[in-house]
Amino acid sequence: MSVPTRTIVLWCPDWPIFAACRELGLDPALPIALTESGVVYACSAAARHDGVARGLKLREAQYRSPALTVLDYDAAVDVRLFEPVVREVETTVPGVQIVRPGMLAMRARGPARYYGGEDAAAQALLDTMAGLGVPGARVGIADGPFAAEQAARAARATAVGIVAVGASAAFIAPLPVGLVTDARTTTLLNRLGVRTLGEFAALPEADVRRRFGAAGAFAHDRAAGREQTGVMARTPPPEFEVLQEFEPPLDRIDQLAFAFRVRAEEFIDRMRAKRLVCTGIRVELDDERGGHSSRSWLHPQWFTPADVVDRVRWQLQGTGTADAGLASPIVRLRVVPERIDSTGNHEAGLWGGGPDERVHHGLTRVQSMLGHDGVVTASIGGGRMLADRQVLVPWGDRAPEHTADRAAGAPWPGSLPALAPASVFRERLPIRLVGDDGASVAIDDRGAISTPPARFAVGGDGESPVRAWAGPWPVVERWWDAEHAKRVHRFQIVDHDGCAWLLVRDGDGWWAEARYD
Amino acid sequence: MTAPLAPAESPSRVDELQARIRGMQATRLDSKAVPTHPVFEQVLPGGTLREGTVVSVEGSTTLLMALLAGPSASGRWVAVVGMPDFGVEAADRFGIDLERLVLVPDPGRQWLTVVAALADVIPVVAARAVGRVAPAEASRLSARLRQRGGVLLVTGEWPGSDARLGVESSRWHGLGAGHGQLSDREVVVSAGGRGEFGRRARSRLRLPDRALGFRVADAATTTDARSSREPVRLDDYERPAS
């Protein structure tokens, strides 16, 4: 039987909390909890001190720690922020396996020889972590990754836990059996009187395999310190991101776009050489005053160098025009590929793409004239007010996620009947609607009108008689939320020229929401 | 033929005459038809929009949507330029496929360039004309449309459009004095222009009808001389003038 690989495990406790705090600029010393589907996924030391634990329901956690800051757990943030850590550790010790974000495993033999002892190697790793500003990292060294992880967890004050060669089985023996088996098996083993890893390891191997199958045999190996899995070092992924520093800083968009063109071509060519295409990028810009702007851009097909330059331009441009100067000169520009795919999945057909590809090229041309938001596609979302119901998405982007839960087909009490107005005003027009006596039509709390509408005028135009009208139809939205609550009354009227209008009465007065023209 | 025309009627007469001549001088081969909603059978000559034409549409967004609905239903892309108030939900209910609808709400001063760029790839473009369009630019764009087989629907001033559709009057039904709700509308659509559109025709249409579709209100289609479906012959025209 082979001897388990001597392994170093580097562990950053509470990595999800640390990552979330760094991403959002919070202080990790505060009580913070990350939740996933309603239960606590991770919590900070302060929260743990208050009694918050993993797996607790959100309500219970808030009860135990009233000052708790609750955030949604985002696995992508964990991984993204861990990546620079891994890269830095790889310069100290090569051949690193990512067990999960926050935990790394590596073979001990090489580093121990290089640094002159396991203790010195562990110290070198801790120095690296301290250099990255990651607090409280711990190192465990033992036979096999599992034992090394337990050694790292057991090392509290010293931050380094080393289990001597051959002593791993004895070291893990007093630990609870639940560390190697799933919840059901743990319960069963506990009922059988097997509570520690040592007791589990003492069971005959053949019996464990017969009773618990392959998974049980694997757990039994781990518990007995005969772990077969070694360290699977990752191959560092190829670097595609490009970084360009501008010295002196550039303050014009066209200058910057021109300066970046060559790097953009390099960026795409490097991916093409690996037979990859990029369908999503993140553009990060730093200006002279320390401002930072970061935004993800998607592409309906794949990025060409010109597309990348366009995205950089649009991000700088915001709503201004291309020849406008920038508020602050740009010193650094970084483009990171976010979505990469094999070219095989994006091969054009033998006879070129379909007609839609032509449309795409035409629309991209218009976009490069007017900016990313200049060309939009429309879909229908949910809501009561007409402007809420039309969802406009720039060409190439996906519809925002929150539109999915505001389904258009859901019943929206107070929304309009099937006939939809052909013109929906982006900004409501101020109008006047008056009765016979010339006083503006008012609606009281019970929804009764003061006088039937008789004359109607848009903006400053002259008044014309109202031919037909109906209303008021009340629309009450978000009454439970004082800040966003909305209570309006709708009217349909037909004016003298035979044109129909949809009017809205809110606290400020009368408005035209839409026109049936 | 030698007698001079009466001075009062001469300008309109000359216009009409020129329109007839232009209509007969259409030397290009018969252009292809763009599928159009059947409601326009009486309104447009031949019942359809022709590729390469510029049509002015005045006074009604619903009329514009009705013109877009036919091509969209037949799988063509449509684009709407410079109309930030275009009601997407109405467009969807009237049969325009939102998957193949592109909006450019704020083209700004470059709107003509945007229309030209879109006309290259999108067969039916609706645009709001802003400011004055130079006749040279307009004819350049129509040449492009003819080459690409596109249709341009314009609201606003456009020099030399092939046809002109407008809403003369509209009557809504379903709404009373304090009760009911808008259900359908009867409009009188007038069509005119040059070439085969030479005669002014009026049709009563339901835009929209009760089922959110488009329908011809009744069969009474009035034209001021004879049916627009009838072929025009020069001698036929000259008889009353001489």
UniProtKB/TrEMBL annotation, chain A:
Residue span, UmuC domain: 18-151
InterPro entries: DNA/RNA_pol_sf, SulA_CellDiv_inhibitor, UmuC
Signal peptide: none
Keywords: DNA damage
Superkingdom in the source lineage: Bacteria
Protein name (Swiss-Prot/TrEMBL): DNA polymerase Y family protein
Organism: Agromyces humatus
Automatic annotation (TrEMBL), chain B:
Name of the protein this chain belongs to: Recombinase A
Region of interest (Disordered), residue spans: 219-242
Biased composition (Basic and acidic residues): 226-242
Organism: Agromyces humatus
Lineage: Bacteria, Bacillati, Actinomycetota, Actinomycetes, Micrococcales
Domain of life of the organism encoding this protein: Bacteria
